[in-house]
Design a protein that fits this description.
The complex is a heterotrimer of chains A (823), B (103) and C (522). In chain A, 65% of the residues lie in helices and 5% in strands. Chain A is mostly helical and 823 residues long. A three-stranded mixed sheet of chain A has the order 1-2-6. In chain A, helix 3 packs parallel to helix 7, helix 11 runs parallel beside helix 13 and helix 22 packs antiparallel against helix 23. The N terminus of chain A is likely disordered. Chain B has 103 residues and is an alpha+beta fold. Chain B is 51% helix and 15% strand. Chain B has six helices and three strands; from the N terminus they run αββαααβαα. In chain B, helix 5 packs across helix 6. The N terminus of chain B is likely disordered. Chain C is an alpha/beta fold and 522 residues long. Chain C has 15 helices and 13 strands. Chain C is flat. In chain C, the strands form three sheets. In chain C, strands 7, 9, 10, 11, 12 and 13 form a six-stranded mixed sheet that branches. The chains are: A mainly alpha (823), B alpha+beta (103), C alpha/beta (522). Chains in contact: A-B, A-C, B-C. At the A-B interface, helix 3, helix 6 and helix 7 of A face helix 3, helix 4, strand 3 and helix 6 of B.
Chain lengths: 823, 103, 522
């Protein structure tokens, strides 16, 4: 290293660089003729090294700029004279004349042939230019390095591309006309595309190459992406013609075809344009032409297509045209994320069909005489009349549910298969279902009846999974019902009957139902229902342990009364069952016969010894009794029957044990001796003395109504083919659609309960917040309660007032109105 | 003819004073200038014959240039590249050759 | 080979102990440096265990120069740092044997002096890559003053007035030219040398550059033992090893000279309040530096070598702010490293030290690599390559670590004494593109040389360049305490250069594995 360092470094031998041999002009002449050779494709006779060296020397001479300019000039001459002539020669008059595409049919073939010839000449010129300039750039690389770095000029390649643009694309077609080659190119390509849109086959690769050329040329010398000639010169015109084409096209299809066809054509056009961008034009245009299609073909017409009379979405839904709906969805979702027209149409149809279902349910009901004020004697007749129609109404309620379920499954299928399980659509459809379901004021009741019916009879003989899906369907509808508390009330009522009267087919199904509701609506909702079940189990235990107790302590001589008892927690069971007082009067408890009374007392004793501090109140109206009755026929024979009657009926019948044969009791006497409420007494007497098949008593006079003065005799001539006779109470046991009064009553109770819920919510919120502005309080209350029902704003306001009156709350400010909690 | 040029595995580099160096084509193409010279699509005479006469370079310099080509080719995928030794008296001429050959 | 002797007497020392060329204001201590002998034989140390036996092994080695200069400067540094180092050329001209004879002539140092003098306005060796037309041709100008001069060709479109000094004929007139402040500076240096004063205060203002030969004598500054009247107490004995401090604050310096980087025992350097736009990477050679002040300059970024000094050297206190530094929130970031490699959602959040409980983690003290900027690539001519063109480049070419022939030639040129011996007229008619490279190479050489921050090869033309963002706030505070948990991080931009396209940061592990000690290779 050290040794070498001592050697002196010499500058390179000057001889290599001395240029005295050649002058610039001499070398340029050689170069120039060689460049021409390259253009005429005779490069094989040239030595790259020689040309490169000449250019190198010229650059070293400091003539770099001169060389650059000379080359540009040479290229300009070549392109401007030689190439430009070739191009303009290929432009025939047919290309210049027919400005409007496809307007004259016989010209179009001629124009097409001329266009193809022109395009291929242009393509060849472009490809030659590219190739030659590639070679020339290689040869002049050294010059380029200096030019681009030191002189800050574009490379010679870029510069000659600009020359091509100016001398070829921008040159006038004829000396006397204004139009330039570029315009002709543009018109020709657009013409070809129009031909293709009209269904002709065109030479795609040829156009593709010309488009490549436009993509390879730029407006500016700096060659920004956005200054491609394709983008500045061709694309706007293409978009414009496409726009007007599709504007008329859309109109045309709409006029001549139905909705399904429109969708098909539109989808095809979209695919076609996409393909055009891929294979004929440039992918740069893809999104732009897509916008044009979306705007002109779809946005403009989709609403009309959707609502097209006879073939629109409505008929597609009615005819289950899942495929066409899918393409409508596809088109609509292109232009509108929310798919507004389609959604609206679907929603409208759902509501329409739902209203039809509602209407048919209501008409089934209103076809029967509407109940008026029911009272006393009048009622008994009507009750009888209505026995059958009521059942029909129940049927119509169940049909209502079934219809809705069918509708739901129809739309579910459409949603799955046509709408790609679109979330927005799902929400909209749910809203529509909810809308019409809630527009039927009896939806809660109907739904509960549906469950009642199925749990009583419907699920007999069905497999577990069938039962499961049946219940699931019902639960789905429950989701739509807004007033969940109303549903709860009905369900409780129906459930209590099922439980107390042992009508339920399967306790498993009942429990399954409860757990499903728990999942759907929440824990709170099912709490009370569950406690009803609990009461039933506890009662069973209680009954059996009471029996044991009696066995141990009981007086064997005493006539045994077999007691089966249900102890119900008063707050958990439906109110009307539990209420002792009707219409505001305090009802004294019913007087039981001695035998029963002793049993009752013995049970009370037993029960209270177990649970001290509780109060038992006996609901005779809900019970049943089996009694053995002996009928002494006039011929001396004795006929025994076992009668299954309501507890009240039992009490009435036992009275007749003390009545000598042939004597009677008046209604008033019975009433005084039993203290059975009038309403129940009338109904029981009706079933005992009026109903033809179960006439254990005789009545004088014989009529359908029961009057206070009527006399009743024991009917020793009672006939029945059966040993056991079941005597139902008129209009008592079965669950069916409520009549107007009952409904009013339910509503009233409902409102009371809601009022209590609202107050509870208000107090809960205020206790936590201490101080709150009115509007905020309202919001919180509404949101807390929305799971159960949608509270009436006025009701909430009233409740707040009432709470203020009762000094739970106080007003602490007026503007804005603010409340404070009083601890 | 361009196809025959392409199949040639070796090319000949000739110095201004007549020394000939036969090197693999890929090695010679380390130089941008020679790569362009031999580009089969261009059809220049060098591409056809596979023989490049480099008028401006002396044999001594071209030898070193070829050494560099090999050095570059050999180490182009190595992580730890050894230094290449250049006699100081050749530095300037090699710099000039590098400039000319674009390497 | 020479370079295998770990601690050879550096040539500069041999040379510089001669009587100064500026004998009237001697920059030397009044006595010759002492001769030392040593029993330890550095040649037998581990790293050249296999080295052939030298003629002088077994003998006591004699060292000329200062005694402390022969001790390992930083005992903390492990010896393996010296091992398997690449033969890197520092690019610093040390003066060869031949030149010694000529160096007796007062004119010998002139070219270098002039280099700095005239390149004042071009004090940024990194910038020419971006603005190549601004590379200054000044050094060649006096040799070819004619209208056809290289200078004229290189000037480019922007022609700016040269500093007046350029027009001056060379060294012969220097004394006439020597400005007052330079004279004053020399006087201060001489005074320090005379008195053994190791704190050199040149914060006198108005110096536009560091005159040649001003700092070189400081290499040999020796402290004088304090002479006291008896009784002699223990605290009289203080270290005689100089704790060299150099204060250049408050001048108008545009660039630093390589002479500064030869002060290998420099402990404290203040460049506060100057006009520096860049600190040359050769700063790395000042391995003893403990305290650096760069505040109030025109720095937009720091050389990566400061990080090296922090991590491998002694640097404890680095004052950078205020300077017009690049800000991370305005900079383009290619990769994030902290707190993790994903792009943070909010900069605010990421620029925060992660919470820690006691004990204080290592991380709270050490510099933290926050992010890495995009990599710029340069072609063999030293011009940046546009992104689009780079994408078209083959991957083997992008991964290659082979230097270009141009680079190989330039490195060799810089190693040789070419620039000292070749008259400008000899090369004036070389191709323009070549001249540019030559000028650039000389710039690099004058600024103390470069070495690739990835492969540590000495190089001239960078092929890659990128910014790394590191938080060094503990070092900015002088290591007074660790970062507090959750403290805001203020990353500094460090510029790194790579010698080939293969020399790019490995994003998976940006760990410094091996850092050769360049200063020791002298």
């Amino acid at each position: 290293m050290a040794m070498r360092a001592r050697k002196k470094i010499h500058a390179p031998r000057r001889g290599l660089m001395s240029n005295n041999v050649n002058t610039f002009d001499e070398m340029w002449d050689v170069l120039a003729s060689s460049l021409r050779e390259i253009h005429t494709k005779n490069a094989s006779s040239l030595s790259f090294e020689e040309l490169y060296r000449k250019a190198y020397r010229i650059v070293l001479m400091g003539k770099c700029g001169d060389l650059y300019e000379q080359v540009k000039q040479l290229e300009g001459e070549w392109l401007g004279q030689e190439i430009q002539k070739r191009i303009t020669a290929s432009i025939t008059s047919s290309l210049l004349l027919a400005k409007e595409p496809v307007d004259v049919k016989d010209q179009s073939n001629e124009r097409r042939a001329a266009g193809e010839k022109f395009l291929s000449v242009l393509r060849e010129a472009w490809e030659d230019h590219q190739l030659c300039m590639g070679m020339i750039t290689d040869v002049l690389m050294y010059m380029d390095r200096v030019v681009t770095t030191e002189h800050r000029k574009p490379s010679i390649y870029v510069a000659t591309m600009a020359i091509f643009r100016d001398c070829v694309i921008r040159s006038n077609v004829r000396s006397d006309s204004d139009s330039v080659v570029g315009d002709v190119l543009k018109d020709t390509v657009l013409f070809m595309i129009q031909l293709e849109r009209a269904g002709h086959v065109i030479e795609r690769p040829l156009i593709r190459h010309c488009i490549y050329m436009l993509e390879g040329l730029y407006e500016t010398i700096t060659e920004e992406e956005s200054s491609k000639l394709y983008l500045t010169m061709f694309e706007p015109a293409f978009i414009e013609t496409s726009r007007s084409f599709y504007r008329t096209e859309g109109q045309r299809i709409l006029e001549m075809a139905d909705a399904a066809t429109f969708c098909k054509i539109a989808s095809n056009r979209i695919a076609e344009e996409r393909e055009r961008c891929l294979y004929t034009l440039s992918t740069l245009t893809e999104s732009k032409i897509k916008d044009v299609l979306d705007e002109e073909l779809i946005s403009r017409h989709i609403a009309e297509v959707v609502n097209l009379e006879g073939t629109g979405v409505r008929s597609m839904i009615d005819n289950d045209r899942v495929d066409v709906l899918a393409s409508v969805y596809e088109l609509n979702s292109r232009v509108d994320k929310k798919k507004t027209p389609l959604t609206l149409a679907v929603q409208k149809r759902i509501v329409e069909m739902g209203q039809e279902i509602n209407a048919s349910a209501t008409s089934a009901q209103s076809a029967k005489p509407v109940e008026k004020e029911t009272n006393g004697d009048k009622k008994s007749e009507k009750e009888k009349e209505k026995e059958k129609p009521m059942n029909q109404q129940t049927m119509s309620a169940i049909k209502w549910v079934d219809d809705i379920l069918a509708l739901k499954s129809k739309f579910d299928r459409i949603w799955k298969e046509s709408f790609k399980q679109d979330q927005g659509m799902e929400g909209a459809m749910m809203n529509s279902f909810s809308e019409f379901i809630n527009s039927n004021p009896r939806s809660s009741e109907y739904l509960s009846l549906f469950f009642d019916e199925n749990l009583k009879k419907g699920i007999k003989g069905k497999t577990e999974s069938e039962v499961d899906s049946l219940l699931d369907n019902g639960i789905t509808l429950l989701r739509y019902v807004k007033d969940k508390d109303l549903f709860e009330t009905y369900y409780k009522k129906h459930l209590s009957r099922r439980l107390l009267m042992k009508r339920s087919v399967s306790m498993d199904a009942e429990r399954q139902m409860i757990s499903k509701m728990k999942v759907e609506v929440g824990n709170q909702f099912t709490q009370r229902l569950e406690s009803m079940f609990r009461d039933m189990t506890v009662s069973d235990d209680l009954t059996s342990s009471y029996k044991d107790h009696i066995k141990k302590t009981g007086d064997p001589d005493q006539k045994k009364v077999d007691l089966e008892i249900n102890v119900l927690t008063s707050t958990m069971w439906p109110m009307e069952i539990m209420s002792n007082n009707k219409d505001g009067e305090v009802q004294l408890p019913c007087i039981f016969p001695k035998e029963i009374e002793s049993t009752k007392q013995s049970f009370e004793q037993f029960y209270l010894s177990k649970h001290s501090g509780r109060k038992l109140s006996w609901q005779a109206s809900m019970g049943t009794a089996d009694i053995r009755a002996t009928f002494q026929r006039s011929n001396g024979k004795v006929q025994r029957h076992e009668l299954n009657v309501s507890t009240y009926a039992m009490v009435i019948l036992v009275l007749f044990n003390d009545v000598p044969a042939g004597e009677s009791l008046t209604y008033e006497e019975i009433q005084a001796r039993t203290r059975i409420p009038n309403h129940d007494l009338i109904r029981n007497l009706q079933s005992l003395a009026v109903a033809p098949k179960t006439r254990v008593l005789k009545k004088e006079p014989m009529s359908k109504d029961v009057k206070p003065t009527d006399k009743f005799f024991f009917n020793h001539d009672f006939q029945s083919p059966f040993m056991k006779v079941r005597i139902g109470v008129v209009s008592g046991g079965a669950n069916k659609v409520e009549n107007q009064d009952q409904r009013k009553e339910t509503e009233q109770k409902m409102n009371e309960e809601r009022g209590a819920s609202i107050e509870a919510a208000v107090v809960r919120i205020m206790k936590q917040r201490k101080k709150l502005v009115h509007s905020q309080l309202m919001n919180e209350v509404l949101s807390q309660l929305s799971g159960r029902f949608s509270p009436n704003i006025n009701m909430v306001k009233k409740r707040i007032e009432s709470l203020i009156d009762r000094e739970y709350l106080e007003r602490v400010a007026e503007e804005p109105p603010t409340y404070g909690y009083i601890a | 003819m361009s196809s025959t040029a392409q199949t040639q595995e070796y090319v000949t580099l000739v110095s201004g004073d007549g020394f000939e160096f036969v090197v693999p084509r890929s090695t010679a193409c380390v130089s941008g200038t020679i790569r362009r010279m031999l580009d089969p699509s261009s059809n220049f005479s060098e591409a056809i014959t596979g023989r490049c006469v480099l008028e401006t370079l002396s044999g001594v310099v071209l030898e070193k240039v070829c050494e560099y080509f090999c050095y570059n080719q050999k180490n182009k995928e190595q992580a730890n590249v050894p230094d290449m030794d250049i006699p100081p008296e050749l530095c300037l001429e090699l710099l000039m050759a590098a400039d000319y050959l674009d390497t | 080979m020479e370079n295998e002797i770990p601690l050879p007497p550096p040539p500069r020392r041999r040379k510089s102990h001669r009587p100064s060329r500026f004998d009237d204001r001697s920059s030397q201590p009044s006595s010759d440096p002492a001769l030392f002998s040593s029993d330890d034989i550095p040649a037998s140390s581990l790293e050249n265990y296999h080295a052939p036996a030298h003629g002088n092994t077994g003998r006591k080695r004699r060292y000329r120069g200062t005694w402390w200069g022969e001790t390992v400067l930083n005992p903390k540094r492990k010896r393996k740092d010296f091992k398997d180092k690449r033969f890197v050329d520092s690019g610093v001209w040390m003066g060869s044997d031949e030149s010694l004879v000529e160096s007796l002539l007062p004119s010998e140092d002139a070219p270098i002096s002039e280099d700095f003098f005239k390149n004042v306005r071009n004090s940024n060796p990194g910038v020419p890559k971006k603005e190549p037309e601004e590379v200054d041709a000044a050094p060649f100008a006096p040799a070819a003053p004619g209208p056809e001069s290289v200078l004229g060709m290189d000037r480019g479109p922007i022609s700016r007035p040269q500093p007046q000094v350029v027009a001056q004929p060379r060294v012969a007139f220097r004394r006439v030219v020597e400005s007052q402040e330079h004279q004053l500076a020399r006087a201060i240096v001489n005074d320090c040398l005379e008195k053994g004063q190791d704190s050199v205060d040149l914060s006198i203002g108005n110096m536009r550059e560091i005159p040649s030969g001003l700092l070189r004598p400081l290499q040999h500054l020796t402290k004088l033992p304090a002479i006291r009247e008896p009784p002699v107490t223990e605290d009289v004995y203080s270290s005689l090893e100089p704790f060299l401090r150099l204060f250049l604050a408050g001048n108008s310096l545009f660039k630093l000279s390589s002479e500064l980087f030869d002060l290998s025992s420099l402990k404290v350097l203040s460049l506060r309040n100057n006009k520096l736009t860049e600190i040359p990477p050769a700063i790395r050679r000042l391995t003893s530096l403990q305290d650096v002040n760069l505040s109030v300059n025109r720095l937009q970024y720091l050389p990566w070598d400061f990080l090296w000094l922090i991590r491998k050297g002694d640097l404890k206190h680095l004052i950078v702010r205020p300077n017009p530094l690049m800000q991370i929130d305005e900079a383009e970031i290619a990769h994030w490293h902290y707190p993790n490699t994903t792009t943070p959602e909010s900069l605010e959040e990421s620029l925060r030290l992660q919470e820690y409980d006691s004990p204080v983690p290592e991380e709270a003290w050490a510099p933290i690599h926050i992010a890495t900027g995009p990599i710029r690539h340069f072609n063999t001519d030293g011009y940046p390559i546009p992104e689009a063109q780079l994408n078209a480049t083959s991957s083997t070419e992008l991964k290659s670590n082979v230097p270009s022939l141009r680079e190989v030639s330039l490195v060799s040129l810089n190693k040789s004494n070419f620039f000292d011996l070749t008259p400008d007229s000899d090369i004036a008619d070389l191709p323009e593109l070549m001249l540019r490279l030559l000028r650039y190479a000389r710039e690099v050489r004058a600024a103390g040389g470069r070495c690739c921050s990835i492969c540590h090869r000495g190089f001239v033309l960078p092929r890659t360049e990128w910014i790394e963002w590191w938080d060094c706030s503990t070092y900015e505070n002088g290591l007074k305490g660790p970062r507090a948990s959750g403290e805001k991080l203020r990353p500094l931009p460090f510029k790194r250069l790579g010698c080939s396209w293969g020399c790019v940061p490995d994003m998976k592990s940006v760990e410094i594995t091996h850092l050769p000690d360049e200063a020791a290779s002298e």
